[in-house]
């Protein structure tokens, strides 16, 4: 397809100029099933935009105004220690900090149990990749045997190449028995001693639920465990009881992402994103691909069947419950132009279109169904403070009215990833108290905003040291404590962030158990395999039982949250500065080159030590802002930064040498748009709104698409 977004075919709809392909998609695939007349839809759409686009702009202007005041305050006190009392008085005076609301409990209704009353892993998946999307949606159930056999999570000799390794298999079987002893203790003895499924007698008979087509179903801490038997299978034939697998209920929920993990810059990209969301909601999304020399087609998994001990036949969802993450308030998109010729605020467009698609689920028109409670779940990222949360609440009211949905059908997940939201979290929750179903900490974006908000206060400590800062510990604990104080337990998810190293499952198993121990009932994982392994943590920790103890602890003070991670009195050596710049530059370039040149918004990118890390725009925000901060305060020079960027471009080129579609940056300094984009992100970083990378990435990606297109 030729890239013609700036001169694409447009159709006028109620004064809006809509790209023709997007208009056709909405009018032919989205609206007819829900009985929505196209003329009335676009008329209502235009009214929402007319009311909410100016409000959106005013909120962004307030962000800029607050940042300007904060910059001035820090510049006037350059070189002086930060006085917390004076600092907080100033933040209250300018409206950055708002009064704490009176104690309240959220009032959200019709929430599915996967969100409200269950604890388990959560996946985040880019909407533009249909195969990944299907894999994530199907990750509700995962083979523990496969997860152990194929990763380093099992402390045993790695599997030998060339087919099934019986020794590795035996180690997996032994580990499975040990897991069952812990999760499903027997009335006497060990699972290792059993040789007959009929002889299974649990210490707690209530853990036994019934029979499935493949074996027996059990439960622990609200999650299910399926023990499968097939003596004729390769694994079952070597097991004394014929046990062939242990299947865990894993990714209870998945966030289908239109934001940080995708490169969607125009109508073509957005229409594909919406089409994939429609396909997974409707239940007919499929993807055909080549793997191992064979053509495979992936579809959504059907439900599991359970025959309970009482003889009742039950259907168990075979799929993860889906959220959709819309774009935040900042970005606009040329897919629709307003009457004045400006681009539509992308978050408003997302709210209307993704909700219209999800209305098919609410009306019971889908193959499988997503929400059994008739709710639409939207995660809203990058909101700054309670005013912006209130704006989202009002916008969702308007979308419900447009689509004929009952009030508060659309639920909201609030990403606690911006400093003004963290500092006013209770007020933010109060602003969406009748539709909130999710709060989640996001260390990466939150760190990017931490750096940018205090950009003029001084140089920041090294990036890896920020993880141990006072504010980080307070941020993580305050999020859970405030969520519990606002009554989220039993109503909404309190979530934690991503494990970024998908090949290091042993480390994940050692460290990520810390997330349920905080009282969080979900945490992000990078793959279905990681979800299966992380599910074990929720069998070890009863999150809901733990919360009473956590709720009794005091909320960490605001003083701790607002401690700026400044490098006061630190003089780094030239080698230390070079090392830090190289680390930031390599990660930045490794991500940006795929974003700009290939339109890949999330992938496993080798770090400076060749360890694969899942990267998205949040990691990029930290690296670019950290380099911009050091440059601003003279810790490094422009020449030093450019030297790191050029040397790390050579390293990134070498790391991608096996990709035939990769375009090298080294030596192509003037021609490589990806390299130029990376330079902009650093050298213009201090001037970017809230330190976000999207404006520059989108501008450079559009240039790349225009460069690559065939002339019309």
From TrEMBL:
One of its GO terms (molecular function) is malate synthase activity. Keywords: Acyltransferase, Cytoplasm, Glyoxylate bypass, Magnesium, Metal-binding, Oxidation, Transferase, Tricarboxylic acid cycle. Acetyl-CoA binds at residues 124, 131-132, 261, 298, 526. Residues 24-78 form the Malate synthase N-terminal domain. It catalyses: glyoxylate + acetyl-CoA + H2O = (S)-malate + CoA + H(+). Residues 322-554 form the Malate synthase TIM barrel domain. One of its GO terms (cellular component) is cytosol. Its cofactor is Mg(2+). Residues 576-665 form the Malate synthase C-terminal domain. Residues 164-194 form the Malate synthase G alpha-beta insertion domain. Glyoxylate binds at residues 325, 417, 442-445. Its main location: cytoplasm. The active site is at residues 325, 616. SUPFAM superfamilies: Malate synthase G (SSF51645). One of its GO terms (biological process) is glyoxylate cycle. InterPro entries: Malate_synth_C_sf, Malate_synth_sf, Malate_synthase_TIM, Malate_synthG, MS_C, MS_N, MS_N_TIM-barrel_dom, MSG_insertion. The modification Cysteine sulfenic acid (-SOH) is found at residue 602. Belongs to the malate synthase family. GlcB subfamily. Monomer. Involved in the glycolate utilization. Catalyzes the condensation and subsequent hydrolysis of acetyl-coenzyme A (acetyl-CoA) and glyoxylate to form malate and CoA. This is Malate synthase G. It comes from Novosphingobium aureum.
């Amino acid at each position: 397809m030729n890239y013609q977004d700036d001169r694409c075919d447009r159709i006028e709809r109620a004064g809006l100029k809509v790209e023709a392909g997007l208009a056709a998609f909405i009018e032919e695939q989205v609206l007819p099933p829900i009985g929505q007349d196209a003329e009335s839809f676009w008329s209502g759409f235009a009214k929402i935009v007319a009311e909410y686009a100016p409000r959106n702009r005013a909120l962004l202007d307030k962000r800029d105004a607050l940042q300007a005041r904060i910059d001035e305050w820090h510049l006037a006190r350059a070189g002086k220690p930060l006085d917390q009392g004076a600092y907080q008085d100033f933040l209250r005076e300018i409206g950055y900090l708002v009064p704490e609301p009176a104690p309240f409990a959220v009032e959200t209704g019709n929430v599915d149990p996967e969100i409200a009353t269950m604890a388990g892993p959560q996946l985040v998946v880019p909407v533009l990749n249909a195969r990944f999307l299907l894999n994530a949606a199907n990750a509700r159930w995962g083979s523990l045997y496969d997860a152990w056999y194929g990763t380093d999570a099992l402390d045993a000799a790695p599997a030998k190449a060339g087919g099934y390794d019986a020794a590795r298999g035996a180690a997996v079987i032994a580990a499975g028995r040990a897991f069952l002893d812990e999760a499903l203790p027997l009335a006497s003895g060990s699972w290792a001693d059993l040789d007959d499924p009929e002889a299974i007698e649990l210490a707690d008979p209530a853990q036994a639920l019934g029979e499935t087509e493949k074996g027996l179903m059990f439960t622990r801490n609200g999650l299910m465990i399926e023990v499968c038997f097939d003596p004729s299978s390769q694994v079952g034939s070597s097991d004394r009881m014929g046990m062939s697998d242990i299947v865990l209920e894993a990714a209870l929920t998945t966030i289908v992402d239109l934001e940080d993990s995708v490169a969607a810059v125009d109508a073509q990209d957005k229409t594909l994103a919406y089409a994939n969301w429609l396909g997974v909601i409707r239940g007919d999304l499929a993807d055909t691909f080549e793997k191992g020399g064979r053509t495979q087609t992936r579809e959504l998994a059907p439900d599991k069947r359970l025959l309970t001990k009482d003889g009742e036949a039950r259907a168990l969802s075979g799929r993860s419950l889906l959220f959709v993450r819309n774009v935040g308030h900042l970005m606009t998109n040329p897919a629709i132009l307003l009457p004045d010729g400006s681009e539509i605020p992308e978050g408003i467009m997302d709210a209307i279109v993704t909700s219209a698609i999800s209305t098919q689920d609410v009306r019971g028109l889908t193959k499988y169904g997503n929400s059994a409670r008739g709710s639409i779940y939207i995660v809203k990222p990058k909101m700054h403070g309670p005013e912006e949360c209130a704006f989202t609440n009002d916008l969702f009211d308007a979308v419900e009215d447009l689509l004929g949905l009952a009030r508060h059908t659309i639920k909201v997940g609030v990403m606690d990833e911006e400093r003004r939201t963290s500092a006013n979290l209770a007020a933010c929750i109060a602003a969406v108290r009748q539709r909130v179903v999710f709060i989640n900490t996001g260390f990466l974006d939150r760190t990017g905003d931490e750096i940018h908000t205090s950009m003029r206060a001084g140089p920041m400590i090294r990036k890896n040291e920020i993880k141990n800062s006072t504010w980080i510990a307070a941020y993580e604990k305050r999020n859970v404590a405030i969520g519990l104080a606002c009554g989220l337990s039993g109503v909404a998810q309190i979530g934690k962030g991503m494990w970024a190293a998908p090949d290091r499952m042993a480390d994940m198993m050692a460290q990520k158990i810390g997330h349920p121990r905080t009282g969080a009932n979900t945490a992000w994982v990078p793959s279905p395999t990681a979800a299966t392994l992380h599910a074990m943590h929720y069998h070890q920790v009863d999150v809901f039982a733990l919360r009473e103890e956590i709720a009794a602890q005091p909320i960490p003070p605001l003083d701790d949250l607002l401690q700026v991670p400044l490098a006061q009195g630190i003089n780094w050596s030239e080698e230390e500065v070079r090392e830090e710049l190289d680390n930031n530059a390599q990660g930045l370039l490794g991500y940006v080159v795929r974003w700009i040149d290939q339109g890949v918004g999330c992938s496993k990118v080798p770090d400076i030590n060749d360890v694969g890390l899942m990267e998205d725009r949040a990691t990029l925000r930290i690296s670019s802002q950290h380099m911009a901060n050091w440059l601003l305060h003279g810790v490094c020079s422009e020449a030093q930064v450019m030297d790191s960027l050029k040397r790390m471009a050579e390293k990134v080129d070498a790391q991608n040498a096996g990709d035939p579609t990769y375009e090298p940056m080294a030596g192509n300094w003037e021609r490589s748009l990806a390299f130029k984009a990376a330079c902009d992100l650093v050298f213009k970083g201090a001037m970017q709104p809230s330190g976000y990378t999207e404006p520059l990435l989108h501008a450079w990606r559009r240039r790349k698409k225009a460069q690559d297109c065939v002339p019309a």
